[in-house]
Amino acid sequence: MPSIVAGLRFPYSRVMLPRTRLAYIHLRNLLTDAKRDRSARLSGYVAVWLPEEFLVLYLQRGEVVNATALDARGSRALAISSALERIPGEPEYGEICFHEADDDQLGCMFLAQTTAPDPWPGEVQVNDPAALFPFLMSVMFYGLVEIVSDGTVNYLLFRAGAVDRAFLPFAAGGSIIERVARIFAPGTGAEKAAFRRWPSVAALPVQAAPALVQAYRELSNALVQRLVATGRDAAPAIAEQARQNLLKMHPELESFCIGKKPTREPIADTARITGAVASWLTEVMWAAADHEGAPPAELLKELTWERRHMFQSAGFYDRMPWKVL
After folding, report:
1. Which of 58, 148, 287, 316 is placed for a possible disulfide with 194 were both Cys, Cβ 3.0 to 4.6 Å?
2. pTM (2 d.p.)
3. Over the range 117-126, which residues count as b (16 or more CB within 10 Å of their CB) and which as e?
4. In angstroms, what CA-CA distances link 68 with 119, 243, 257, 295?
5. Are 219 and 303 in contact (CB under 8 A)?
6. Which pLDDT tens digit goes with each residue over 205-253?
7. What does the alpha-carbon distance between residue 238 and residue 285 come to, in Å, rounded to a whole number?
8. What local confidence, expressed as pLDDT, does residue 35 receive?
């Protein structure tokens, strides 16, 4: 991992677990406690420094809702399950921290690690506050400015050219103008800082839970197996053809297959995953189900009954053309 990444410090509102060796922490227990303990159901991030990459798990109300990775190839969004798999169970190297943070800050962090920034005009000396802030005011800038200076990551949210909120990795004190001015104070290395900007900031995206993705995979395989058992030997081929036909409209189906372990994990929210799977299984059942001997509604009810609350919460039944429950 590049040394500049290993030394980065991100803003936080409270330290839940100071940066420590990964070998001392059981990550699964840490995340489980964050979900079960009512007092720990907070928003924040778990940052993990590994020898070859830097991972961030984003939490909202104790649940892991997204993940990003930064390595030699750059930074990008990562499926939650993929991020967890990359963290060894018995690590020899690596560090970890768990910090509480504002939801808006999490949106800033995710945006900065997953979206290319807008370029600065060549004539603007962004390292000079006397040039930077007048320029942003002149264009009535709305959006995010990230400043990485001396190992610290700072996020400034602008509204109509003025700083509206600031997430800074040092203790709060003074007005927002005084706090931001500390970034440019003599001796802070601001003249060597990296400045990036984005024209808007969205809320932190929430991925579909890995448990829901796994439930949909098991459901699709169980459905095809049941169809084969009732004499529809072509059901696997029908399911694969339907999946291929729907890929352009529902690329999330790249993460699903019948009878094989998927080669990739989806990075999509619950609505997109549910819509993709519902469209796929609808096509399969129209083409392969016995609509008289085993009506689709009855078959779906049987196959989904044990996890009906999960599927209902995800809106799966509402997407199907049959009344299941």
Report:
1. 148
2. 0.89
3. beeeeeeeeb
4. 23, 28, 25, 43
5. yes
6. 999 999 999 999 999 999 999 999 988 899 999 999 999 999 999 999 9
7. 9
8. 66
Helix, strand, or coil (residue 47) = strand
Residue 245 zone, left/alpha/beta (φ > 0; ψ -120 to 50; rest)? alpha
- Report DSSP state, residue 266: -
User: Rounded mean pLDDT of 184-202?
Assistant: 87
Contact 283, 245 (CB under 8 A): yes
Instruction: Catalogue the E-assigned strands of the chain.
Output: 14-21, 44-49, 54-60, 63-71, 74-77, 95-100, 143-149, 152-159, 162-167, 194-198
The contacts of residue 192 (CB under 8 Å, 6+ apart) are 127, 149
Quick count: other Cβ atoms within 10 Å of Cβ 52? 10
Contact 185, 179 (CB under 8 A): no
CB–CB of 9/152 below 8 Å?
yes
Residues 6+ apart with CB under 8 A from 168: 11, 152, 154, 155, 179, 180, 182, 183
Mean pLDDT computed over every residue of the chain? 91
3-state secondary structure of 281: helix
Q: Left if phi > 0, otherwise alpha if psi is -120 to 50, otherwise beta: which for 189?
A: left
